[in-house]
Amino acid sequence: MESFFVFIGGIQPRRVTVDPAPRRCPRCGRLTATLQRIDHYLSLFFIPLLRVKRGEDTLVCSRCGEAPAAGSGPEPDATAARFCRFCREPFPADYVYCPRCGRRM
Length: 105
Ligand SMILES: [Zn+2]
Ligand SMILES: [Zn+2]
Description:
By secondary structure, this protein is an all-beta fold. The chain contains no helices and seven strands. The chain binds zinc ion (2 copies).
Protein backbone atom coordinates (compact mmCIF):
# COMPACT_ATOMS: atom_id res chain seq x y z
CA MET A 1 0.00 0.00 0.00
CA GLU A 2 1.37 3.34 -1.02
CA SER A 3 1.41 6.17 1.38
CA PHE A 4 0.95 9.69 0.21
CA PHE A 5 1.58 13.03 1.79
CA VAL A 6 -0.33 16.25 1.60
CA PHE A 7 1.99 19.14 2.17
CA ILE A 8 0.51 22.24 3.66
CA GLY A 9 3.45 24.48 4.18
CA GLY A 10 6.79 24.01 2.53
CA ILE A 11 10.45 24.67 3.02
CA GLN A 12 11.13 27.47 5.47
CA PRO A 13 14.49 29.00 6.35
CA ARG A 14 15.38 29.20 10.02
CA ARG A 15 18.25 31.16 11.47
CA VAL A 16 20.18 29.19 14.06
CA THR A 17 22.83 30.63 16.36
CA VAL A 18 25.70 28.14 16.29
CA ASP A 19 27.80 29.87 18.93
CA PRO A 20 26.43 32.84 20.90
CA ALA A 21 29.89 33.92 22.02
CA PRO A 22 30.78 37.27 20.39
CA ARG A 23 33.45 37.13 17.71
CA ARG A 24 35.39 39.78 15.92
CA CYS A 25 33.68 40.94 12.76
CA PRO A 26 36.18 40.92 9.86
CA ARG A 27 34.47 43.92 8.32
CA CYS A 28 34.20 46.43 11.19
CA GLY A 29 36.62 44.79 13.63
CA ARG A 30 34.24 44.92 16.59
CA LEU A 31 33.24 42.03 18.81
CA THR A 32 29.67 42.18 17.54
CA ALA A 33 29.54 39.11 15.34
CA THR A 34 28.16 35.68 16.23
CA LEU A 35 28.40 32.43 14.34
CA GLN A 36 25.03 31.67 12.78
CA ARG A 37 23.63 29.30 10.25
CA ILE A 38 20.51 29.25 8.13
CA ASP A 39 18.94 25.82 8.03
CA HIS A 40 16.00 24.94 5.85
CA TYR A 41 13.16 23.07 7.45
CA LEU A 42 10.23 21.30 5.98
CA SER A 43 7.33 22.79 7.84
CA LEU A 44 3.76 21.74 8.09
CA PHE A 45 1.17 24.17 9.36
CA PHE A 46 4.04 26.55 10.11
CA ILE A 47 5.65 24.05 12.50
CA PRO A 48 9.18 23.04 11.48
CA LEU A 49 9.24 19.26 11.28
CA LEU A 50 12.35 18.17 9.49
CA ARG A 51 15.63 19.79 8.63
CA VAL A 52 16.12 19.31 4.91
CA LYS A 53 19.22 21.42 4.41
CA ARG A 54 21.96 22.38 6.80
CA GLY A 55 23.34 25.82 6.11
CA GLU A 56 26.92 26.97 6.15
CA ASP A 57 28.28 28.51 9.33
CA THR A 58 28.36 32.26 8.77
CA LEU A 59 29.61 35.13 10.86
CA VAL A 60 26.79 37.62 11.25
CA CYS A 61 27.62 41.03 12.62
CA SER A 62 24.92 42.99 14.42
CA ARG A 63 26.32 46.19 12.87
CA CYS A 64 27.11 45.26 9.28
CA GLY A 65 25.23 42.04 8.67
CA GLU A 66 26.63 38.88 7.22
CA ALA A 67 30.36 38.69 6.79
CA PRO A 68 31.06 35.92 4.31
CA ALA A 69 33.54 33.38 5.58
CA ALA A 70 36.81 32.93 3.78
CA GLY A 71 36.51 30.83 0.68
CA SER A 72 32.72 30.93 0.46
CA GLY A 73 30.32 33.05 -1.51
CA PRO A 74 31.02 34.92 -4.71
CA GLU A 75 34.62 35.64 -5.50
CA PRO A 76 35.58 39.18 -4.53
CA ASP A 77 36.47 41.53 -7.31
CA ALA A 78 40.12 40.93 -8.12
CA THR A 79 40.95 44.62 -8.25
CA ALA A 80 39.21 45.27 -4.91
CA ALA A 81 40.68 42.29 -3.08
CA ARG A 82 43.74 42.51 -0.94
CA PHE A 83 45.87 39.75 0.44
CA CYS A 84 46.62 39.19 4.09
CA ARG A 85 50.28 39.80 4.68
CA PHE A 86 50.34 37.13 7.37
CA CYS A 87 48.53 34.18 5.82
CA ARG A 88 48.09 35.40 2.20
CA GLU A 89 44.33 34.93 2.34
CA PRO A 90 42.54 37.19 -0.19
CA PHE A 91 39.79 39.31 1.30
CA PRO A 92 37.67 42.31 0.28
CA ALA A 93 39.41 45.65 0.47
CA ASP A 94 36.95 47.06 3.01
CA TYR A 95 37.85 44.43 5.59
CA VAL A 96 40.02 45.62 8.43
CA TYR A 97 40.71 42.20 9.89
CA CYS A 98 41.70 39.09 7.99
CA PRO A 99 38.74 36.68 7.92
CA ARG A 100 41.09 33.71 8.15
CA CYS A 101 43.69 34.55 10.78
CA GLY A 102 41.92 37.53 12.39
CA ARG A 103 44.95 39.79 12.33
CA ARG A 104 44.61 43.46 11.68
CA MET A 105 45.91 44.80 8.39
ZN1 LIG B 1 30.77 44.31 11.62
ZN1 LIG C 1 45.38 36.39 7.54
